[in-house]
Specification:
56% helix, 4 strands, Rossmann fold, alpha/beta, 140 residues
């Protein structure tokens, strides 16, 4: 039995994928098609889903949230952030003391660690700063 490569999907990638006005839209679309066709295991967290819904609604409206929840979200396995993961993310956020680093990012890194995920589909430099693989795909 072959094990597929697991990839964490961040809101930065989903926003680029959904909004043609985003600078990385073309790269996001190409990466998404590759991720789906090559049968990667796509993972995100409920915190990322909330963040993505909020961003989409504010920038593009509720109809775009519907598109996200019916067309993209079903391809993802959503890991729910439990109290321990939340606390670890919060401690990491406070320890980093970076204004531009978010609690959602810190909980994402913890979810990735706990799930054994080394790759991220993200356009957020914080993933790259932590040595996670970003597009372009294919991943090794």
């Amino acid at each position: 039995m072959t094990t597929s490569i697991r990839v964490f999907v961040d809101s930065s990638a989903m926003m680029s994928l959904l909004d043609p006005r985003q600078e990385m839209h073309g790269q996001a679309r190409a990466a998404w098609v590759s991720l789906l066709h090559d049968e990667f295991e796509l993972i995100t967290s409920n915190y990322v889903v909330v963040e993505t819904c909020s961003l989409i609604q504010r920038r593009s409206g509720v109809a775009a949230v519907l598109t996200f929840t019916t067309e993209l979200l079903p391809a993802l396995r959503v890991v729910w952030v439990d109290p321990e993961t939340h606390t670890t993310g919060l401690v990491s956020l406070l320890a980093a003391a970076q204004r531009d680093l978010a609690l959602v990012d810190c909980t994402s890194f913890e979810v990735m660690r706990r799930e054994g995920v080394r790759h991220a589909f993200a356009f957020d430099r914080h993933f790259q700063d932590r040595g996670m693989v970003l597009p372009p795909l294919p991943l090794p």
